[in-house]
Amino acid sequence: MPEFGEAVLDGFQIQHFLEETLADDLILEAIWGDATSKEKGNHPPGSLAAEGHVYPVPSSTIVQRALFPPKYHSLENVPISTHKLKLVETEPSPRNVILKFQDGDGKDYWTQIQLFKHTSVQIYSKEEWQDAVCKVDKDCRGFKIGIAFEFKTHILALPTNDLLIQVHWASFRKDLPTQQANIYTDYPAFLAELVAWMRLRRASRSNRTSLAMTAIRKESSIFYGAGVYTTQEIFHKAGLSPNITEREVFDCPSQTARLVAAWYDLAADIYESLWSFMKPFLRGFKIACHRTDRLRYAECLSVYRKDRTNLSLRFKEQLNAFKVSNTVMQGSAKLCPRKHGAPAVPFDVFEPDHVKRALINENVGLGSLIFGNSLWEVLHDKAGLPMGCLTPQNSLIDYFHDPSFDRSTWLYPNGYSFLFNEAAGRQGMTAWANTLLYRIANTHIWSIIPAYSCNSCPDMPPSKSAVARRPSQSSKSKISVSDQESTSVSMIEGQEHLHLLMRYVTRHSEIMTVGPLDFCGTAEIIQGQGGKELVMVCKLDPRHTALSLKRQNLGAAVAKLKGKGLDHIGIRPKERKRLLSSLEVTDLADHQQKRPRV
């Protein structure tokens, strides 16, 4: 599903459309959508919906996904255009598309589209919509239209793989169902919600020995937009091992503060930098890229599906020390509780540069929790940070005033003589490290920091501890999550690791990975005759010649063959001829309808 970055970018894309479009051209003329398999049977034979084409939703229709606003439902099928709804605002959101309309009387009307699965935003010109998207049925165009808003010159559409969206309409913003606090735009409210959740979890009967990473992904009402790859990037920034448990993280002031700082830093980067990164891929108001550009989003990531990453020397030194301690712990004759100060238990591997936006922001105020008051005072003064960063007040600091919490930071002793590498003149001193890949249940976890040894377990209070036993020799290849959790973590190496790298998947398959350049509905740029750039807004785009369509499909087939190891010898003439023959586009009539009226 769309995670924080993709969903927020959808909001920026719509904002750009609003800023560059005349207000009178933003009056809603129609609402479109593809019918689900169940809805398709409710339409008469030969209609657009029955034939698998996107269709204008009449005001007299009520579908489960509430595509048409209930306020304007009409048995007489009064067109939505008569209400003069003008799109006036959008609100970038980590898991939703939120739009604000105003009717002819100036009254607000809001809609929220919840993005459950692979869904994005594309804004098509009328020509692209009428002559391409509308002409190709949903099973052939490469995506389905969850909902689309037609304006005078453009259509704001939400392409989706599976039509799994939910549309809500309300007269007031507060009446929309999703009201979670955004860590970047409403930080105090986010902290308040986080603390309430932590307090509830700590008071529960659960021993909280599930993976912290799993707990974060499941608690989407708090960690809004933190999916599989976003969570892994956050853990890298926070300096946390991939199999650390919920209790270990959220009962430790420093680890919790580092997690929040990492989450804030990632969100700030998305809000402040991602749109600039994406602008070169705009064609009109839609996102389009060459096949080779699909890999570019990897530049924005540190660990997810990457084979290696660049580290500061401080991070690399701490990483080497972690590996040594982990190896010693692995060789112990008995189970090792992960207790601060216990022999061989490694310290966390943490680089403050990874959360710099949070540390320098006096409104975030996490330095004292991360480093402890004494060390933070020294580092703060050396870095010349604002005084507000030294003694901040927020709900997370108040929560951890409870003396029952262990004040250990889990940071390397004497590992922080300076705060940021640039100020210490070490910004150019870096090293490379290979990523590690683990399998946890059905999830692949990418990390630079190793998982804790299978010979270790969380340090549990007596009332919640389980019977500890040393794992058998046969389980050495697996890393235990906890005493009471059956889930195990296995390392993935060799060819399997290679085939899951983003560069491999993107170059050698049609499988979408992550990021707005490799997402459902992203238009593809191919080279036409004479080097002319052609933008294919969907598969079988009928505006272009059969040769261009063949070239688009051939590129996909060749990528798959390269994935089998044929790239070093090229495609043999006979194989190329066979591919061209099998990909011959002889008749688009099976996938097109007569141009619909709009």
Question: What does this molecule look like?
Answer:
This protein has 598 residues and is an alpha+beta fold. It contains 17 helices and 21 strands. The strands form six sheets. The chain has a five-stranded antiparallel β-sheet. Strand 4 and strand 5 form a beta hairpin. Helix 6 crosses helix 8. The radius of gyration is 27 Å and the shape is globular. The C terminus is likely disordered.
Please tag this protein with its features.
single chain; 598 residues; alpha+beta; five-stranded antiparallel beta sheet; four-stranded antiparallel beta sheet; 17 helices; disordered C terminus
Number of helices: 17
State mean pLDDT (0 to 100 scale). Answer: 85
Question: Distance N terminus to C terminus?
Answer: 31 Å
Please state roughly what percent of the residues sit in beta strands, choosing from under 5%, 5-15%, 15-25%, 25-35%, 35-45% or over 45%.
15-25%
Q: Output the structural class.
A: alpha+beta
Beta strand count? 21
* Biggest β-sheet description: 5 strands, antiparallel
Low-pLDDT runs of 5+ residues are 462-486, 566-570, 585-598
Layout: helices, strands, pairs:
Layout: H1 4-19, E1 30-33, H2 37-40, E2 55-56, E3 86-92, E4 96-102, E5 108-115, E6 122-125, H3 126-131, E7 144-150, E8 154-160, E9 165-170, H4 187-203, H5 212-218, H6 228-238, H7 246-250, H8 253-278, E10 282-283, E11 286-289, E12 308-312, H9 313-330, E13 336-338, H10 356-359, H11 367-371, H12 373-383, H13 395-399, E14 430-434, E15 436-440, E16 443-447, E17 456-458, E18 478-482, E19 485-491, H14 494-499, H15 502-508, E20 523-527, E21 533-536, H16 546-566, H17 573-582
Parallel strand pairs: 11-20, 13-17
Antiparallel strand pairs: 1-2, 1-7, 3-4, 4-5, 5-9, 6-8, 7-8, 10-11, 12-14, 15-16, 15-19, 18-19, 20-21
Helix pairs in contact: 1-8, 6-8, 15-16
